[in-house]
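re: the backbone from monday

yeah here it is again, tokenized this time
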């Protein structure tokens, strides 16, 4: 039982990461009906920005004390938000009225650009993230140990999800986002700037991916320009699992993905860790294509 509870904690830790990335997928799909395959690579940029910012601070002998982590987190979120807005403006907006296949191919192209452009810019060799927070046990209960970084990941993820919910449900921007996700045409008729709302959606979704990149770098200090490929795919599967376009669905799918992956590694074999995502994707598409919390949309043909 102790091992089960320990794996449950580990699964919630990774589920929080997948949920943050999946939120970006589902928000963009909700307002644009676009699968932004570059989103996982934005997560990689978040980790890289925080890594180089930490090195600059260390080289300048600037001591921030306990403020170093929140400053790096904020820098990464801002940088990824700006990158997300740039991608939307340069790559996706000119193709707004183009066939879906053209936009999908462009998304894959942007992903490859970030991955191999990252190798040119940052180098292909892995980097090792500095130890900003000692990964010491915070408390132990009945044999189950929760360390500082696990608590930090869970707390930051929960806080960001609550902030996102407040923005979407309680602000004018959130109301506009919900209106645009319902209908672009109707939103324009009531005076909503659809392009601006879509840009804000990319800003928010990309900033969450940037936060996930920093949190993963804390837990797994080895980072590289291709680190976003598998987490991005798994987060996409999580979004589909929960119901692409549904924010609660993205959260549910992310946590289910993290828990399932952790238990497979613990009780079956780590060999099947990456294969699990694709098994879940096939299963959900066969059994419930709209996802666990998604709604089937009828289209006239």
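seq for it, each position gets an aa:
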């Amino acid at each position: 039982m102790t091992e089960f509870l320990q794996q449950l904690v580990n699964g919630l830790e990774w589920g929080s990461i997948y949920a943050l990335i999946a939120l970006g997928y589902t928000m963009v799909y909700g307002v644009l009906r676009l699968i932004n395959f570059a989103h996982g690579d934005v997560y990689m940029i978040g980790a890289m920005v925080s890594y180089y910012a930490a090195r600059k601070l260390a080289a300048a002998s600037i001591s921030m004390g306990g403020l170093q982590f929140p400053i790096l987190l904020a820098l990464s979120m801002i940088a990824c938000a700006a990158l997300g807005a740039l991608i939307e403006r340069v790559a996706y907006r000119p193709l707004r009225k183009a066939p879906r296949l053209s936009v999908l191919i462009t998304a894959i192209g942007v992903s490859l650009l970030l991955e191999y452009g990252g190798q040119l810019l940052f180098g292909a060799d892995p980097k090792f993230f500095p130890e900003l927070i000692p990964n010491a046990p915070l408390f132990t209960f009945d044999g189950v140990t929760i360390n500082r970084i696990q608590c930090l990941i869970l707390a930051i993820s929960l806080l960001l999800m609550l902030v996102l919910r407040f923005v979407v449900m309680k602000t004018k921007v959130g109301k506009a986002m919900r209106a645009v996700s319902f209908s672009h045409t109707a939103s324009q008729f009531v005076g909503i700037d659809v392009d601006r709302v879509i840009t804000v959606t990319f800003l928010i979704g990309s900033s969450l991916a940037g936060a996930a990149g920093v949190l993963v770098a804390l837990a797994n200090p080895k980072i590289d320009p291709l680190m976003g490929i598998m987490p991005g795919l798994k987060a996409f599967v999580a979004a589909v699992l929960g119901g692409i376009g549904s924010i609660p669905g993205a959260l549910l799918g992310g946590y289910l993905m993290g828990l399932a992956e952790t238990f497979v590694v613990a009780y079956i074999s780590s060999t099947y860790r990456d294969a699990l995502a694709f098994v879940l994707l096939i299963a959900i598409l066969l059994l419930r294509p709209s996802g666990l919390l998604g709604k089937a949309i009828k289209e006239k043909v």
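The chain has a mean pLDDT of 89. The domain at 6-132+141-287 is CATH 1.10.3470 (ABC transporter involved in vitamin B12 uptake, BtuC).
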